[in-house]
Write a structure and sequence with these properties.
binds adenosine-5'-diphosphate, 4 strands, binds magnesium ion, 7 helices, 20% strand, four-stranded antiparallel β-sheet
């Protein structure tokens, strides 16, 4: 058993449509435990830093604008192989390519407004968690 932690965001299209509970139910049904969670308004600087890896992509400006357009819910998830388990329940980036029953297939509006973020590796999960949570805010 490899118990891991991963970082998750319920994006502005989720808070705007009041579906954060529905998404959390899918996360929990996938065997993941929400061990930290808070609702924040992301600043432009936070969004630019968080998505710095995409800064040269044509959609970067649109992405930062979207992520700061409404509150988000940042989370730490814990469970067996949490990084991959979460990516599985999220589904493909573009909802048109997402598997049936995944969060993005069920809820995402477009490739940009795709409801959820999940870390893509254990290393990035640790970096992303540290950007939004201090150790005593995570209660496993
Ligand atoms: P993922 O969130 O599945 O890890 P990426 O890391 O490739 O996907 O992209 C980060 C985020 O950037 C996506 O979740 C989505 O919100 C946005 N994005 C990715 N590709 C596009 C695109 N072609 N057009 C608009 N937004 C995009
Ligand atoms: Mg990514």
């Amino acid at each position: 058993m490899t118990i891991q932690r991963t970082f998750s965001i319920l994006k502005p299209d989720a808070t705007r449509r009041n579906i954060t509970g529905a998404v959390n139910a899918m996360i929990e049904a996938a065997g993941l435990r929400i061990v930290a969670q808070k609702r924040i308004q992301m600043t432009q600087a936070q969004a630019e830093t968080f998505y710095a890896v995409h800064s040269e992509r044509p959609f970067f400006g649109e992405l930062v604008e979207f992520m700061t357009s409404a509150p988000v819910v940042v989370q730490v998830l814990e469970g067996e192989n949490a990084v991959l388990a979460h990516r599985d329940v999220m589904g493909a980036t573009n909802p048109a390519n997402a598997e049936e029953g995944t969060i993005r297939k069920v809820h995402a509006l477009s490739v940009g407004e795709n409801t959820v973020h999940g870390s893509d590796s254990e290393e990035n999960a640790a970096i992303e968690i540290a950007q939004f949570f201090s150790g005593n805010e995570i209660v496993g």
